[in-house]
């Protein structure tokens, strides 16, 4: 793609005015042998996928809906590491576009003013001999207006434009995001996930704070010390044990 200034990301760009979900298109292109770094982008999605089987609101023109197809030479258990790569890339790009300071929320949201501004849905296709491909699905609320948000959201949400007070260019933002993914991906392939984890920890407000985690029918209370290389949240309890949280709902403790 002319002018992207990237090494791998966007060597192939597949654009849709409308599609059901860019992640579904990415699976097809992944199975069809499209190269590492292929980018899929749509103006609107008729069935945008969110986490946990939810829908992702995808009105026309205002936001970014994109999926990036990667073919890293890693083992299946390492694939969740790439969620942190997308979160850091999205946070950097939103920071550049808005001059504001986005934060990340474990496991995979990006926030502005404490409200969700982007969602990430990473998926992989593994085979017995290893990873076939990974898809980074990224939805960023760029210019969505308050009345365009679904009424039944379970969390506070916002857009870059609402927080910044002016609209942002979708193509400018997309270029910036692909450049950040490209840089982080090159670094990941060369050095592994550690530098990405360190940067993610610096963007996460919960690191260093006391939290409560609802996890598998029990509540864990303790201090968040960071992330490990599998993307588990590390929580040190008052008893001095270190818990590795792989899934759960985390909130700061009051006081
Ligand atoms: C979440 O629930 O937080 C994840 C939302 C992910 C949405 C993006 S939009 C582009 C890509 N295609 C999809 O269908 N979903 C992801």
Task: Provide the fold topology.
Blueprint: E1 13-19, H1 22-31, E2 38-45, E3 64-70, H2 81-98, E4 103-105, E5 109-112, E6 115-127, E7 130-140, H3 160-164, H4 170-191, H5 194-203, E8 210-215, E9 218-227, E10 233-237, E11 242-245, E12 249-252
Parallel strand pairs: 1-2
Antiparallel strand pairs: 2-3, 3-7, 4-5, 5-6, 6-7, 8-9, 8-12, 9-10, 10-11
Helix pairs in contact: 2-4, 2-5
Biotin (BTN) binds near residues 48, 51, 54, 56 and 119.
How many strands, which pairing sense, and closed or not: the largest β-sheet? 7 strands, mixed
Q: What is the CA–CA distance across the termini?
A: 51 Å
Number of helical segments with 4 or more residues: 5
Radius of gyration: 18 Å
How many domain units?
2
Question: What is CATH's topology name of the largest domain?
Answer: BirA Bifunctional Protein, domain 2
Number of strands: 12
Helix content: 25-40%
Instruction: Give the distinct bound molecules.
Output: biotin
- The stretches of 5 or more residues where confidence is low (pLDDT under 50) are none
């Amino acid at each position: 793609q002319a002018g992207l200034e990237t090494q791998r990301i966007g060597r192939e760009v597949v654009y849709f005015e409308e599609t059901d979900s860019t992640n579904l298109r990415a699976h097809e292109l992944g199975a069809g042998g499209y190269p590492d770094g292929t980018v899929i982008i749509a103006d609107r999605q008729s069935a945008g996928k969110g986490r946990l089987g939810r829908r992702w609101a995808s009105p026309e023109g205002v936001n970014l809906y994109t999926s990036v197809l990667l073919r890293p030479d890693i083992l299946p258990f390492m694939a969740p590491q790439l969620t942190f790569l997308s979160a850091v890339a999205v946070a950097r790009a939103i920071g550049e576009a808005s001059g504001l300071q986005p934060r990340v929320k474990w496991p995979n949201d990006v926030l502005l003013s404490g409200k969700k501004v982007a969602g990430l849905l990473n998926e992989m296709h593994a085979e017995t001999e290893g990873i076939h491909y990974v898809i980074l699905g990224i939805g960023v609320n760029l210019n969505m207006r308050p009345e365009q948000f679904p009424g039944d959201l379970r969390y506070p949400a916002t857009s870059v434009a609402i927080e910044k007070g002016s609209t942002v260019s979708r193509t400018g933002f997309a270029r910036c995001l692909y450049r950040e993914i490209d840089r982080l991906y090159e670094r990941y392939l060369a050095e592994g996930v550690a530098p990405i984890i360190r940067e993610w920890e610096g963007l996460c407000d919960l690191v260093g704070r006391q939290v409560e985690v609802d996890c598998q029918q029990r509540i864990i209370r303790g201090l968040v010390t960071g992330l490990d290389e599998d993307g588990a949240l590390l929580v040190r309890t008052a008893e001095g044990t270190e818990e590795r949280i792989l899934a759960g709902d985390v909130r700061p403790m009051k006081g």
